[in-house]
Write the structure tokens for this entry.
Amino acid sequence: MVRILIEEIEAYAKEHKVPIMLPDGISYLEQYIKKHHVKKILEIGTAIGYSAIRMASVSEDIEIITIERDEERYLKAIENIKISGYQNRIHVNLCDAMNFEIEEQFDLIFIDAAKSGYIKFFEKFDQNLKQGGTIISDNLNFHGFTKMETRIESKNLRQMVNKIRNYIQFLENNKNYQTTFLEIGDGIGVSVKL
Ligand code: SAH
Ligand code: MG
């Protein structure tokens, strides 16, 4: 049931250009959750619920709180999550992550939202991550642009790429975390809280 749903969401994402995680990236995330016995996850950027459903499918005792600011995607996520049967374990919030207040502690925080906000998201939710917990960030390669050495013509794209470069530097310099950068999917950062 869930497998068919996942294929349907992948097709929907392709058709409606929803930037869901790439296949290698999401498999890595699933394996990480399994290996480290992750139980409580905070996700920033639900989109249509694809990554949340896949993460929840790893084990029946996983609970996810996820945030999405776009109403249309939020509604689609609610619909998909209901079909998955995981509606008791995946809680979707229609909200800008920067205005989302929560006291709970998580084993894993998955940042996959607007690239311009990554440093702010990281700093804001650091207090909600257990010691030894992990922050995983998606799209650090940004389709290869992050590593491009020639000047990027489009101003918007250049600004976005610079934001990601700043974030990578921020992670490298953060002494409270040990970050590994992986060439998986669209580039993933795995930051373990020391
Ligand atoms: N994690 C999803 C894909 C997320 S795409 C998956 O792999 O299936 C990124 C999403 O983040 C978009 O839907 C966008 O609307 C949302 N987003 C961007 N900035 C946000 C913010 N500040 N707060 C909440 N959601 C945000
Ligand atoms: Mg992404």
Notes: The first helix runs from residue 2 to 15. The mean pLDDT is 96.
